[in-house]
Amino acid sequence: MVATLRDEWRWLESRLKQLASDDIDAATHAQPLGELSELARETAGFVTEYTSRSRVQRMQYALRDRARMRDLAERLAVLQQRLQLCLQIDATRALRLRERLAEDDVADLEAEAEVAQELVDELHAGASGSRGSATASAGGARVDEQIDAAALDALLDEMVDALRAAKLDETRATAARKQTFELETAWSHVSRAEPLHRAGAAGELYAGTYQGVTRVALKYFYGGSEAAADEVRRELAIQRAVSGPNVLQVFGAMTRDPSRLCLVLELAPDGSLLDAMRARSHDPPPAAELARCARDVVAGVEHLHARQVHHGDLKSANVLRCTGGVWKLCDFGLARARCTTRATRATRSTGGGAAGTLPWMAPELLDRARDRLAMRDKVDCYALGCVFYELLAWRTPWEGKSDAIVFDAVRAGERPRLPVDRRPAAALRPLVGAIAQLWAHEPLDRPPVDLALVARAQCVVEAAEAADAAAAAVVAAGGGVDGCAQDARAQQLAPPPLDAPPPVAQRPPPTAVELNVMSWPQLVAAVRAGAAPVDGAGPGGENWVAAMAERAEEAAAAIRAVSRRALADAASCELAANAGALEAVVAAMRAHAAHSDVQKWACWALRNICTADDAAGISRAQRATEAGALEAVVDAMRAHAAHSRVQVQACWALRNICTTDDAAGISRAQRATEARALEAVVDAMHAHAAHSDLQKQACWALRNICSGTDAAGPARKQRATKAGALEAVVDARRAHAAHSVVQAGVQEQACWALIHVCSGTDAAGPARKQRATKAGALEAVVAAMRAPAAHSGVQKQACWALGNLCVSTDVAGLARARQAVEDGALEAVTAAMRAHAEHSGVQQQACWALANVCAGNDAAGLARARQAAEGALRAVVAAMRAHAEHLGVQEQACTALARVCAGTNVVGLALMRRTAAQEGALEAIAAAMIAFLVQPVVQTQGRLALAALRAE
């Protein structure tokens, strides 16, 4: 025993020496992992050899096998002990690394403590003693170099936790690197122009162009470190993840060189709210513009909070006025710049990690004893109240006050007061009450920034616009006393920006050339202009009808430009959505419900913008749903039932919007069902039976809407069945049997539709399968498999549909299986397996179809099994060999063999055994059972097949 411990200590000492020389791979990877892998392979070979022996052979070699098993167990115990020692070495390394990181953190905290001390000295000048001095202690864990064998088990849990934490950190770092790589932009794609002077902006700002076309803002950070690059990547990731109509759009970043970092952002030509206050300190904008700014800021914060993101540094410098007069938020949670000016000094809260600018900081951020992390959304609420104050007072909070006064006043519960010379307009007075609520001293007393607050802000906008219009009318009429006239002139609308289109009544409709060169905001504005109501003529009159027709043509042209530009790539779709194209298109569909061109191009635009099933595409589909796109599309299908182009694009739009089986996708499918989309799609299939593209898109739409395993899924399938979807799909397959020369043709999508409509374990599921059979689904599926035999997608989905229709073992299910065999299903499935031997999906679904078609122990079932044994057994064994590592193929193949072999009568048993021996079925089944030892389906069905084939 002593000799063994001495040997282990020598081995461990060599590992520690390698670790000390930073030879980590040799210390932890050369041994014992290599030996453990070799031992695993040796053990697997022994198990394979042992299981391949007969019972007599096992008895003959029992003594040798026991000795070998004992040797393997002893070697495994030794390697297990060495592995535990390696874990201690890895833990030692991790603890030493944490020690070094802790020392770095202490240095950073000391530097921040100096800055904080300067602030405290200003706040408490003249005070004796030092109340807030604290000495940061870095009590890094010290690792004992001697290993206590008695405490091995206790230390092992800590080492495993350390390894898991390191693995998690590695996973997060990998994800961050991947995301950074995807968003990285080449310097050649941007060109810098004139500088932009923005108040309170961190970094240097320049106007420029992106990819030679798009006007952008370039935000530079010079002389940075890798930590600064991480901050830039963090801001980039947050802004990209929460893109929305009131969030500044980000195009990319250049972060590979930490000394020269750059963000490529949407250009805000009118600057920030702080810029506007400084440029027009004595001439604030009209009430309507202030109200719109308040609404957009509230909508932006609500958009962030709904996605579990908190701004952290909301203030007037981070509220930008972009093209079209839309106010957007920027600089998410950055607030890292340390400067000495009062207006932009960033005070970091210790311990909690929250950041902000002092005049906009909530009182809990100034108190060390209060929990700040749990109230990050409430911090944004307080800052939102400060932005409201800026809009009403037209100056920053606590303007002219020192930091010491602000610090003590906020902690004491005091708030800045509105100046006496800035009485808010009557329409803006609801903001005063909102400020009082948002400025509550206790975070829990502040209202959430939700859709209700957005609605209140919208009411303020409408009231302010009405008041401004009334004041403008008074001025135009020349009425009112001098005071009223001055008040009215003060409420007039500000002139529009230079790049904004003129009012609708003052401009001609844009030409096609003009539409093609417009920016996304201008193009969306053109769509909205086409959807605007017609003034100056009574509804229903000749003038009104002519004006509406002209306006509809204008909207159709603008939407057509949107749809074509959104077809370019995913970036164009994202730009369109961020500019508000989805909402504008839906508004145009409602405004011109009777105009077929508007509906056609609108459905096409929705289809293109909502393309892609990645995270961004799903987000666009959800946004379209929230805008009412599903209802608008279904209404278009009802209103233009005879217009095939409208129907095609509408089905395509439904298909793209209702894609994915996540919770949000299922919710969209349910909303489409409630809008009677299933009935509209089926009606379109009946009305345009000869239109192949419509049939394909309609089947695809049915497939997406009826997918999902949620509680309401069976109800959607049942509703589609009642609407006649099964008959329509079967008719489409018969009428367009040759439409599968390209991927995702009518045949493949029709099979998909049958799969999703007929699936489900609800009580009505068998009735749906029976109805599909009566409609001729089995014959149509087999015919589809024979016609385009080279189309793997058709073959896979057809086999899946066959298996789904024949899965039941009740009387009706056996009848369906018998009918499938009579229609030639077994021959078609076998041919598909031979033609697509390399396609694992075809092989898996073909085996499943064979298993279900051959189920049943009645006379007909025995006949089906014998017929399958004669033709399909060779194809099944070949599939098992070709896809030995594919679990799905092995499961379904073992199930097929088990059912075919169990149902073979005495006459066919000899043929079955002879064929199985020739094709190597026994070896294939055994290999599958060994490869998937923990898979119950493979084990159970494999044993049944072996029992049938090897029975005496």
Automatic annotation (TrEMBL):
Protein kinase domain span: 191-461
ARM repeat locations: 580-609, 628-657, 676-705, 776-805
Coiled coil ranges: 99-126
SUPFAM superfamilies: ARM repeat, Protein kinase-like (PK-like)
Molecular-function GO terms, alphabetical: ATP binding; protein serine/threonine kinase activity
Keywords assigned by UniProt, alphabetized: Coiled coil
SMART domains recorded: ARM, S_TKc
Pfam family, one: Arm
UniProt protein name: Protein kinase domain-containing protein
Source lineage: Eukaryota, Haptista, Haptophyta, Pavlovophyceae, Pavlovales
